[in-house]
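Support case: phosphoenolpyruvate complex. Customer-provided input:
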Amino acid sequence: MPERTPLISGNWKMNLNHFEATALLDKLRYLLTKEDTESVDVSVHPPFTDIRTVQTFLESEKVPIAIGAQNCHWEANGAYTGEVSPVFLAKLNVSYVIVGHSERRQLFGDTDVIVQRKVGAVFAHGMTPILCCGETLAEREAGAAHGIVTGQIHAGIDALKPDQVASMVIAYEPIWAIGTGQTASAADAQEACGWIRAKVAEMKGAEAAAAVRIQYGGSVKSSNVAELMGQPDIDGALVGGASLEAEEFARIIQFRLA
Ligand code: PEP
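Agent response - structure generated as follows:
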């Protein structure tokens, strides 16, 4: 079975200007040891306006944290006022791009078709997509969670080759757990992530399923991360609110010490 290095990603959403971003990263680099960043991959996903500053800081200080984006357009260039090209992100050494976050799906109309195009564009420009999926509370209570998540995974990976799927990241983020303080239990999170891995195996084969990294997201904190990360099909965390504070985010990255 391939070794899946855990990936802990901080999604800053529309928080922290470029000065605040640098201050947070400056604290974070002193809190993390060489062992932390050798055993865990870490990415931060600042607002677009911070990315150049974050890149300059991380590269000049040689901090082993990957740069991520929260979204991108699917076209390389053109008359798309207000959008950001994946080409521009790649030029800033962005490694990971979150695609299909529930806030994008719910507030900005990112449909499965759009998500599929964006996933393709991220790969086409040499970056790794973090494909988000997850059900609402109403869908969960109606017993529809598996169907919803399966549909989102289908849309996100159908057009991809198995080796692309093997190299990507899928984030299971139940919408009722995002920003609510209500975390899925470790058992529920494992059940969903195990289901996703099984679906990937059906769609793209056992090798892709064994290699793809699956994150859990939804009110991850230093107090619950160790139990979540102890589950066999959970390979990382997509962290919103708790990534905005250096000490707390460092403790999450250091989940093995908990
Ligand atoms: C997220 O934004 O992806 C997220 C999981 O947020 P939070 O950790 O704040 O629930």
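The domain at 7-257 is CATH 3.20.20.70 (TIM Barrel).

Case will auto-close in a few days if no follow-up is received.
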